[in-house]
Design brief:
Elements (H helix, E strand, L loop, with lengths): L6 E3 L4 E2 H9 L5 H8 L9 H15 L2
Antiparallel strand pairs: 1-2
């Protein structure tokens, strides 16, 4: 089970759960999740992790 409280974007304090919430609310791409949460928009270090999470949560949502 994924820890939804784990911070993925340290700059803005965005958690796995916040990424999941954005996807559950309809975001399907990295850009849409960035617009909803701000994750990956400051220093960019977490972009790969955020992108993987978006792909994972979209796949889970669309099952």
């Amino acid at each position: 089970m994924m820890n939804l409280d784990k911070v993925v974007c340290n700059c803005l304090g965005v958690t796995n759960g916040m990424i999941k919430e954005a996807v559950d609310a309809g975001a399907s791409t990295l850009e849409e999740v960035q617009n909803a949460t701000g994750a990956g928009t400051v220093c960019g270090v977490c972009i790969d992790d955020v992108e993987r999470l978006v792909e994972f949560f979209v796949a889970e949502r669309d099952k």
